[in-house]
Write a structure and sequence with these properties.
The protein is about 35% helix and about 25% strand. By secondary structure, it is an alpha+beta fold. The protein has one domain: 3-Layer(aba) Sandwich (GIY-YIG endonuclease). It has a three-stranded antiparallel β-sheet, sandwiched between helices. The protein is globular and about 30 Å long. The mean pLDDT is about 90.
């Protein structure tokens, strides 16, 4: 079995907005966001709070999950984060 090296994550930006992303190195990607070198959307919106993570064994599965989450309305993302905080990753 391959290790889970592909991550989908949700950040809460300082302005209260949510950003969903994909990475294969979560710690490095969060550092890049904090340094203003991450996604264009997150530049100038830090500091960030990591609200949700879900690991995948396959990059394509992770990318599909990222796409699906990005299409969700905010209230559904918040519900997903609440479920995650209770220990339920829905992927």
């Amino acid at each position: 079995m391959a290790s889970k090296e592909h991550w989908v994550y949700i950040l809460k930006c300082q302005d209260g907005t949510l950003y969903t992303g994909y990475t294969n190195d979560l710690a490095h990607r969060i550092r890049m966001h904090e340094e203003g070198k991450g996604a264009k959307y997150t530049r100038g919106r830090g500091p960030f709070h990591l609200m949700y993570t879900c690991a995948f064994e396959d990059k394509s599965d992770a990318m599909r999950a990222e796409y699906r989450i990005k299409k969700l309305p905010r209230h559904e993302k918040l519900a997903m984060i609440q479920a995650y905080e209770k220990g339920m990753c829905d992927e």
